[in-house]
Model the fold of this input.
Amino acid sequence: MARRARGPGGARLLSISIDVDPVPCYYRIHGLGPAPDELRDVVMRRCVPRFAELFARRGLPATFFLVGEDLDIGALGGRARAARALCADLVAAGHELGNHSHTHPYELARLPADVVAREIAACDAALREVARRPTAGFRAPGYDLSPAMLAELARLGYAYDSSVFPAPGYYAAKAAVMAALATAGRPSGAVMTDPRHLLAPADPYRPSMTSPWRRGQAPVVELPIAVTPWTRAWAIGTSLLLAPPWLRTRVVAAMAGRRFFNLELHGIDLCDADLDGIPGELVARQPDLRRPLAAKLAALDAVLDQALATFEPVLLRDAAAWVHRELA
Ligand SMILES: [Zn+2]
Done:
């Protein structure tokens, strides 16, 4: 039945989301120790407005997953006030704010349930103050969704989670990098994701409350991050913006085999190391920081041109509403 194979009106749906991870997250991943304090809000201040401009120019809606602490005036003072004003502007422009935990602990899936609940609830409270509407969705740090997170999302009445990333090749690459850092005596602050996620469905599904990588009866639907049909190549923005054009074009073309394209980007994807004052120690470890902003913007425009020929852009919360109707 065509209606079941496609989104509303027969369209296929593209949701663009941006994880606004602050620079200290990258210092942790690369085992670099504490980040300089002045870099705390550089992704929010410099990169988020670039995404907002691009989306305004193209008339696209997007979902910004925010770390609650970046909006915490008690912790960050004027920087949090500026972040709140910027995020309120995103809401006014029709974008969605999503919950990306309060402090972005990579080990969130391994923390006690009460800590998990506090991490999610604190970010939720900050987002409500800024957006003045309930938050619909969550993305776990490090793609690692746990039953405790799902329980808290259900308690808060969230419509969806979007953390599951069933891309075996990505995990293999992450494991190799983490092993290399450990060997170099500079252990990564990243945490290996529960490998059961690799077997999760790649299309939206209703997860099990106790094993979120399996189908079940949770009130929250899962919107997995994009992987291509068959080979499950990862189709995330950071990789697409770095890939040579022939590969990028092939990955996006393969996504046309799916009815839903959940395109995940990171705030730092639109960072310009020179213009934004990113220290050499981080640039040396992160290849995307060595590409000029103009090249990354051109690549993102090319990805969007190609995807929008097939897919209709919607917020993740609207995609979730469609999935809820489909799975009812
Ligand atoms: Zn993140």
